Description:
This protein has about 120 residues and is of the alpha+beta class. The protein has helices at about 5-20, 75-85, 100-105, and strands spanning about 25, 30, 40, 50-55, 60-65, 90-95. The protein has a single domain (about 5-30, about 40-105), classed as Trna Endonuclease, Chain: A, domain 1 (3-Layer(aba) Sandwich), CATH 3.40.1350. It starts with 5 loop residues before the first helix and ends in an 11-residue tail after the last helix.
Amino acid sequence: MKGWSEKEFTKAVLNEATRFGWSLSYHPLPATVAKGKIITPYQGNGKGFPDLILLKSTCGIVAELKVGNNKPTPEQQKWLEAFRALGFIAEVWYPRDWDRIVSLLSGGRASSLAVRI
């Protein structure tokens, strides 16, 4: 888990979500434009929209995924707060949070499982 890229971390989380029966998942993929600049296109006031939305039955998780020492932006925090107000579990996740992530996704049925990337 140490040294994961955000892409590897995202894939691992999505794999575990699928494994534990999260029926719907959403992760926007960034688009590359000229000169190597990477953007995620959106309309409206979507700046900072979370990296991951997971839905299962009557439960929803929204996560902003970070690696290294990266911190969420004020816009990302605003989105997480809005989702929390609607009853979602809304958190910032780092690879170091793996045990908590697996516990949430498994409904507390698993503590630490092998990572499948």
